[in-house]
Amino acid sequence: MWVREDLEVIYSVYSDKQGARWVGDGQPISREDAIRWLDVTFKNYSGRGYGMSTVIEKATGTIVGFCGLVHPNGQQHAEIKYSFKKTHWGLGYASEIVPGMISYGNTVHGLGKIIATVADENIASQRVLQKSHMSLSDEYEENGQKILVYEWDA
Description:
The chain is an alpha+beta fold. The protein has helices spanning 7-14, 17-20, 31-48, 93-109, 123-131, and strands at 52-56, 63-70, 78-84, 113-119, 135-142, 145-153. Helices cover 36% and strands 29% of the residues. It starts with 6 loop residues before the first helix and ends with a strand.
């Protein structure tokens, strides 16, 4: 679970221009937005029992990124979200954490359906979702970009 001390790393990951390209409207977040997201996550923990989590590299104890289950804009199905420090892209963390988070959502919280949204240009994340047994189920356009919807069903 996130703790207040994670704020600086949360901000560093989501304020990075290249990394933020795949998150929300594609714009880096402000420090105030990072604080708000931290507060929303704390509310999710108390209201739903889950939210965003810190991903820590076992060997070093270093925070390498974040992954979690959220309900943007109150949507019905939990959506898996993840992002990592650029220095840790391509090292297999997402391929390890996404199936684990899906299993956690299903076994601990009884989530029978979990979705993920990904830009059609983000091939790496599409591969992660496919390896995690998620299937392409829909697509839509947002902010001039084609968004693919993947889903996992129990």
